Each structure stands twice: as structure tokens, then as C-alpha cells.
Amino acid sequence: MKNLGETHKRSILKATSWRAFGMVATTIIVFIFTRKIALSIGVGLAEAAVKIILFYLHERIWEKVSWGRVKHPLSEIPLKTKLTQQDLTTIRNKLKELGYAD
Amino acid sequence: MLFGKNKKRTFVLGIDGFPYSFLQDRFIQENMPKLSSFTKQNLTKRMDSVYPVVSSVAWTSFATGQNPAEHNIFGFVDRTPNPFQITIPTARERRAKTIWQEFSAQGKKVIVINVPLTYPPEQVNGILTSCFLCTDINKSTYPADFSGYLKEKNYIIDVDAGLAKENKRKLMDELFLATDKRFEIALELFKNKEWDYFQLHIMETDRLFHFFWNDLEMQGEYYPDIIKFLAKLDTHIDELQNKLNDEDRFIMLSDHGFCGINYEVQLNAWLKQQGLLKFTNGSTKLPEYHKDTVCYSLLPGRIFINLEGREEKGTVKKSEYQNIRKDIKNRLLNFTDPATNENIIDRVFFREEIYSGPYLDNAADIIAHPKRGYDLKGRTEKTDIFEKSHLNGMHTYDDAFIYAKNCDISKIKSIMDVKKAILTN
Known about the structure:
The complex is a heterodimer of chains A (about 100) and B (about 425).
Chain A: H1 8-34, H2 37-63, H3 85-97
Chain B: E1 10-15, H1 20-23, H2 26-31, H3 33-40, E2 44-47, H4 55-64, H5 68-71, E3 78-81, E4 84-87, H6 99-105, E5 110-113, E6 126-129, E7 141-142, H7 146-152, H8 163-166, H9 168-192, E8 197-202, H10 204-217, H11 223-243, E9 249-253, E10 257-260, E11 263-266, H12 267-273, E12 295-298, E13 302-305, H13 321-333, E14 345-350, H14 351-354, E15 366-370, E16 374-377, E17 386-387, E18 393-396, E19 400-405, H15 418-424
Helix pairs in contact in B: 9-10, 9-11
């Protein structure tokens, strides 16, 4: 049965949005320390580019690990109650009353 | 939800055995105005059932979108050929994926109530309440603890069909009560639970027509009760429909039509008379048939050849198989009611003509479909071929109906086509 995990598109979108936040934070932090606007933006962009790739790869590796994941109830073979002989006799008698069994 | 709600839900209401032809009838138009108004909207059509015309086969064909040789359900009773044994197929024997399993696997929430051949209850992403085959309310649901809610509500799995012989008044009262309870439970779940696919099955119409058909046709003692029952059902349908959103799919359908019974026809008694079914030492139990038997029947109209190498006591050679089937087919087509000289059997099929799939070998070799009014049975102890019983209504093949809102049913010809229509539009 197909695992109900994330699509590649969703992982990429998440990585991008996270890095956008990260890039702004890095740019602000570098600017506070250096007071150089061009350097701050450069570091922010370089960091974002590298980490966006790393984050995507990291997500896809975790996607392959099933440990700790909550499984969909139907990812296993459905459980079925075993019928007793008494159950079957009752069913058969009922079917006879309904004209569905002889 | 962050980005708003965009869900198309599906509600399926099964009304067992409700004939399409009723919708055109003035009697129904007067007493079931809501249901009959749907026919005027051009959203309703006639459809075929499946062979044999039995609810367990028909509803499994609906749920799986497959023919019996693909889903492996051929009747309410079946047999294993070697060692010979009569068996009762349940949901355990179903071999194809149901529509509620498909929705569940997509992570969608389902609620399924009372659909034939859903016992024992299977695991779904939601709630499933078994059909009338369930013997004990404690074993009737998935999840198991949901049965506590049903007990609190005094839910009725099925009416006591034995009352048809002893106390028809009480049976009629139970039909009202069971239907009311089913709608009551359904409407509560509808309101209080999240669902994407909801299927509610009303079995009581089948029981009503089986046991009270003569009262309906001849305006007998229970005629006013039948009118009251159908009017009540119409009110329930109206209430349900009013709760659905405009974008929800709403599908109502039956699995076959109904007609009156002239006679129950004991096909095994006829096979005995034809010299095709034999018994040893006065026994009349099917598992004890004589090895010289050519064929035997399970209701309704399923005939199995006593084939060598397949059946426990098989003696018919494989080389004779086709000729014997042709011979039996000819005999069936010439089988007449001695009182009227009318043919009893309308159509006779070899199994490969109507089924295809991996379980074809489990099907009967010949499937006989009767003319209206002749209900095929299979008791082996009988010597009289024509009988009457407390049952006075029987199933018909070509008179099921389907109504659909927000779902294209233009391509549907039989109940087997409905699942695809739901899943693809």
C-alpha cells in the first residue's frame, strides 16, 4: 500500500519557505555584526542557497525512515474476525428464514 | 483549516430492491412525492442488476465495481467441490477492493452502515456497521467499541424474518422501527462525525416486498401499512437530502427490482425428475448425492456439473462437459409450467458468457434466470417442483434504479458501473 508521506513538491516548498525566513534572519545578524549591507545580503543569499539544497536532501532521507511515523490504519492487512461454527449456523438459519438458503 | 474548505463529499443511500418502475407509478407519485420528484429532474435512470439477482452479489458488485468472477461472491450460499461442503460466503471471501476501502486508503473518512456482505466488519478509516448477516451486535462494528453506541440507541441489525410465518403485524412494526433507527443513527453520525464517503443501506424495503407483495398488489390487509411505510421512508429521504450541501454528491440506488411470485420452483426437484440428480439410500441431503449425478443446483438457478477431477464425487468426463451443458440448457429452456404451458426459464448462461476474472472457476457452470413470477429455489428433499410459501415477492434483473446529484450517471448500464462513476467524476 502506498505510504501516506510527503510529496517532493511539498518538501521543496517547505524548504524554500523555511530558507526565506532563515535568509532574512542571517542577513540581519550579519548586518548587526558588520554594518555592511552588501556583505550581509551576500552571506544571507549564499547560506540560503546551500542550506535549501541540504534541507531538501535531509527531508528526503527522513522520508525513507519509517521509524516514529504514525501509520495509516489500512497500511496493514485489514483484521477480520474469525467466525465460529455457531455464528455460521445462526447465519444459515437466518438465510433460510429469508428464503436465501435451502 | 488554513486554506479553507474544498471537499466534495459523497453520500450513497441504498434502498434494497426498490424497483425503477415504481418511480413511474401513480401510487408512488402520490405516496412518495420526494422520491418520485427526482425522476422529473432527469437525474434518475433504470439499470440492470447482476446474475444471479441476489443482494449479496449485487451490492458486492456495486462496492467493488467488478463482476462476480472478479470479486468471488456468487450467492448467499455456495459450495466447495472437494471435499463437498455447503458454505456461507461472508466479507472474508470478497476478493476485490470496495469503494470504502479505496476512500480509506486515500486517507478519507468513511461511514458505512448495513451494506449487505459487510460481515465480519473490516477495518476502515472511519466506522463500519455490518449487515444482517451479523449474529451479535457486539461483533457488528469497526471499531469494535462503536457497538456500544448502537446498543445505547437500541439499534436493530435486522428484523426477525421468522415473524413472516407467525406474526406479520409484529414484522410490519419491526420494519418501521428498524428503518427509523437506521436513519436516526445515520443522521447523528452525519452531523457529529467527519466523513468524506457515507453509505447507508435500507434493507427493510427488500423485506417489505418479499413478505407483503401480495398485500401491495391486491390491496390486502397490510396495504395501509405499506403506504405508511413508504411515505415515512420518503420523509426520511427528504430530511437527509436537506442536510446535504449543494456541492455534495448524493446517490440513491437499488440493487434489483421486484415482482410477485406465481410459484417457487424447486430446481433440484426438477433435476431429480429429469434423472440428472440422484441420491443414495433415501437420503436427500445435497452433500450425500449419488456419484451418478450429472448436476445439482444452488439457489437461485445456479447449476454445477458433477465434473470428474473437480467435484468430490465427480463422474462427468471433461470431454462430455460442453455437450452436457448444452443438453441441460435446452432442457431448461423447454421447462414449462404445466398449468399454463408457459416457459419457466427466461435465459440460460454458461458462466464464461456473463463472468470473467480470476475466480471464474468458483462460479456455477450454468446460470438459469427465470421468467417473472417463478422464483428458483434449490431444496433437495422436495418432490413437488412447484410450491408456494410465506414469501410472495421475488427479485427482478432489469428494474433497479439510480438517482445521482453532482455525479454523471449517463454511462451507467448496470450496478457494476456505479463505483467507477463515483470515483471518476
